[in-house]
């Protein structure tokens, strides 16, 4: 293990221990309700940028993966009363399959056509779920939470901890990809797919891999949301806001490094939670739009890019 | 359940509805089809135009179509500004302009959506005029006058825009810039100015299209999301940049939507345009009347 890795795993362990201690000590429920949403978006943004950031395929279908995760959980609970870990695993498996299909799409579509195709997929899946009576149809469905297991004494606290685990998993995978040959291959095909293919980079295999991993993570993140809200309906589970928020978080943070989406998600997620509580959810969407436009125009490389620029300038000054 | 009359009814309404879809897609056919701008905020501008028409109709009792004409100069200017902004921040810098551009326009669409909500609220809005709410009986088929109005205006718009692009100097310049921007530069013309003008035209057409949108059915602030699918489906199916093709593709979509609506119910309707879009992208990416191979 390199020094970097030791630092990363120590940090992750400290984070998980802190989250666990928080669930045991803090009595107020609100921090968990708000924190869960922020953690969920960190995981989504990190998963998104495996395909959108490293490979440069801009996926607007985050809400499709998220919503399928939600409905996988809803179906399993209604049909078999499946426990939470099984819901998440099933979500991940379905997400991986969806990701594989998405990866095959990249064979025919690049750039904006790929992005439009992902929006199309989202609406088609949403419509299918809307017409599926068993899981509630357009009206939505109520879900009963089972009894909470020790050592937690509240279900939301447990979900909070589970989501923290998913965040660490997503970040660890994203970090591993960035530092391995997979990440370098993805970056090569992002810069020039034809050149990468010609120099022997297995572009199709890499794209499929990125789509499968990204999709599995996004679906897994969606699965616990059914239990969190105790309710699911197609219009909100597949809301386009999930796609645009996730994309905005990654772009604001910067996609050149695995920590970019985390920074973006914490910044935007916290701002949105504060705004929703203090002003209104409409203003929250307005801020999302404004920040997205500002960063895409003013800082195309995101916060990571800004930091690198500042560092670079300072180094030049020292020399 | 299935009957020939019902099918005929669906086809007639579908053709009229399709012409209306053509009218709302014409602007995108220029901005995305000819200029390659990933304009996902196009439907948001469309809904914005509808609300402007609603405002004029509600407060000054202006006929919706006249109101649509009145706002076209404003939308033309809006288009000029929007393209300038897009060019300076994305096209000029080059690298992955399309990818960041689509994120940019999504941001713009969200901002427009929220501003409309803050100003007009989330309720549906509609306009009043003599031809709204009445229908023309043709045998067993009942055709609402508002669809006929939409049909007439859409056809006129398509013809005018086709003539403009093929007969006038500026129109030919726009098609030239779509074919080879570099050649224009070598001949001493400024491609950016021409593209800016074209984007202005594309946005100005939205003024009238917005009037049609609110004539055909009531609008609400998030209606633009449904029209992302419809407009992009029409433009991609038409083959980027073909005006006549846009009308044909729109009619195909309109007929498909009404037939599915009649046979399977309204809950399946949102998926039609996106499914067709996906099908076209996968099978025939250059569209029915494509300019590129």
Helix share bin of chain B: over 70%
Portion in strands of chain A = under 5%
Kindly report the oligomeric state of this protein: heterodimer
SS-based structural class of chain B? mainly alpha
Subcellular location (chain B): Cell membrane
Family (chain B): Belongs to the binding-protein-dependent transport system permease family. LivHM subfamily.
Transmembrane segments (chain B): 7-28, 40-57, 64-86, 98-122, 143-165, 197-219, 231-253, 259-283
Protein name (chain B): Branched-chain amino acid transport system permease protein
How would you explain this protein's 3D organization?
The complex is a heterodimer of chains A (319) and B (293). Chain A has one domain (3-239). Helices cover 79% and strands 1% of the residues of chain A. Chain A contains 14 helices and two strands, in the order αααααβααααβααααα. In chain A, strands 1-2 form a two-stranded antiparallel sheet. Chain B is mostly helical. Chain B has a domain at 26-224. Helices cover 75% and strands 3% of the residues of chain B. Chain B is built from eleven helices and two strands. Chain B has a two-stranded antiparallel ribbon. In chain B, a hairpin with a 2-residue loop joins β1 (135-138) and β2 (141-144). In chain B, α5 (145-167) packs antiparallel against α8, α9 (224-238) runs parallel beside α11 and α10 (243-264) packs across α11. The mean pLDDT of chain B is 85. Chains A and B meet through α5, α11 and α13 of A and α4, α9 and α11 of B.
Short description:
The complex is a heterodimer of chains A (319) and B (293). With 319 residues, chain A is an all-alpha fold.
Task: List the main descriptive attributes of the protein structure presented here.
heterodimer; A: 319 residues; mainly alpha; two-stranded antiparallel ribbon; 1% strand; B: 293 residues; Branched-chain amino acid transport system permease protein (chain A)
